[in-house]
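Possible race condition, two jobs.
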Amino acid sequence: MTPQRIVITGGSGFVGRALCERLVSTWPGCRLVVPTRHLPNARAVQSLPTVDVLACDVHQPAQLAALLQGADALVHLVAVLHGDAARFDRVHVALPRTLAAAARAAGIRRVVHVSALGVAADAPSNYLRSKAAGEAVWRQAEQVDGAGGLDVRILRPSVIFGEDDRFTNLFAGLLKLFPLMPLAGTGARFQPVWVGDVAQAIVELTRRDDLTSATVEAAGPEVLTLGQIVQRVGAMSGRPRPVLPLPEWAGMLQAAGMALLPGEPPMSRDNVLSMRVPNVAGGTLPGLSALGITPQPLARLAAHFAPARPAYQWR
């Protein structure tokens, strides 16, 4: 399948920007449509050729109907990491339900939905439970349509890293400020995956018709604990710091305090609960290698975090 018009919900975000750049270089003749409620949020993709940024509230069915007209593929990236149960349900469950109905009505052939590793109906966090419910919405929509209807592919990535991510850059900033890093969930296991590999996986899921599974896991080449990730970021940024493990109850108190800060909190109680589940590939589903992708390690960020050298040095 070589789509001619792709709608990318969440296309102005961290993963969306990488995806738009990859699609522009992969299919230069394809029009990419990126909806956003606030046009300034999409400045990073507005300058790309063949990308159309449109003012749209994707939660509104009438606006979605107009947005999807003439499109033959939909990539859904919208997600939230913080909030109460109602917010997670609105974004991760109700929105896919609205999108699925609009996609069927518009005659969309292919949908790529980005979920997460570790999702389950009985998971300990609102994030993971709502992500599982969102996957179920898409699978139900696919069954309703039957043969010739919606063809839904689901990508489950581990924590995604890149030069502009909020994950590793958050720790790099904290390591710059503090001589010691107190941290809950230091033993939580992740398999960090590079944003460029995630973008390429979405491209492959959009175009390929020969998949053996409609659900693919996106994980990097290394399984690392959260403590090891922080230590590696410290080493790459030239600020190695000792990590002080905190028990979960202390992490919950820490997250509650962070929730009082203005803006999006760096950590929430729900994030702490999510870390009870290993964020690693299960091995029963195909991974990036099935899409012809060799995943990049966390060390790819070394140049990004390398300490700046002074312009002049005495010898």
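Job #2 (started ~2 s after job #1):
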Amino acid sequence: MLAYLVVLAGVTTALHIWKLPPALPALQAELGLSLVESGFLLSLVQMAGMTLGLVMGLFAEKIGLRRCLLLGLLLLSVASAAGAVFVDKTLMLVFRAIEGCGFLMVVMPGPALIRRLVKPNQLARLLGVWGCYIPIGAVIILLAGSWLLSMANWRVLWWLLTFITLVVMVFAWRALPSDPPRLARAERSSVWRIIGTTLGAEQIWLVALCFGFYAAQWISVIGFLPTIYSVAGVSGPVAGVLTAVVAGSNAVGCYVAGGLLHRGASARTLMITGYVTMAATAFVAFGLHMPVPVQFLMILVFSTVGGLIPTTLFLLVIKLAPSTETTSTSIGWMQQMSAAGQFAGPPAVAWVATLAGGWASTWVFTGMCALIGIGMTLRLGAKLKARG
């Protein structure tokens, strides 16, 4: 099914997003990166999402969803190859920012392309598969990428991902149907009207903020897991495997959510279940000073059940977009809030941990995010009920 090719493109972009963490020690040694420069290298992808999500959604709507996806894959492959050839820390930051743009150009049109390619009664199930692209990419890189880096230079990984991305781009170019003809000028809305309609819709703000507060929790816990395990005395390789398992478990929740929505489950129920579970398991894992095996189990449940949220929001943003031509900009705004959450979450958790003298208060931040998410979900549920 062609929709799975779109999912494959999403997974390919996730490989580029997650390739940096396992390669960072080698890059720091070779390029002389400071801790601050390393932090910028890690966060530049999210910076692109924070600033360009809506713009990329508009760009996708104007040039065509298929064209945007193909250009994004091309941009990712070129930036990855350039990073392997021009080894300089300033250029590396530039190429990372370009990769962030390529990532957005693929993921912005992804859900709308899937809607175009499948029957309406299959949409929820396929969006459940689409929601897995980030955790699947994370698991592949954290396991296979780390293994490759133990035997080869980081440039080999960059070149390998360049080749994989180009192969996926060629398959997509040959297999995905062309974008439909653009509307006549008189029938098309202006740029400002599309933006105004998107940002003027309360339901789009609610969906986007729900995603932001979910993403802030998930990335904060997953991102610091190796550090948390290190403090607890768990060795580096074992900590890496445990982190990969937790990240991958999120894909299970995403996939299950698609099936439940396909069977008529309530979006509000799935989201509240996700937020409540994330708050409760984070409290048990960090607030009660549990041993490492119990902590791991709680974080595994945190990530798995939390996966109910992103798939549900992907479906809601498509259904609640004010019009067909604002679908991509609505997804773009949701992606922008997600990136903001991923950008702000880890520093916030690190700040709380610094004040508390350890990770025991992590649950305070995740709990606050969950409570805000529940409140906005209830408001969103009221909007959905009013729409019938």
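Residues 1-178 form a domain with the Growth Hormone; Chain: A; fold (CATH 1.20.1250.20).
Logs attached separately.
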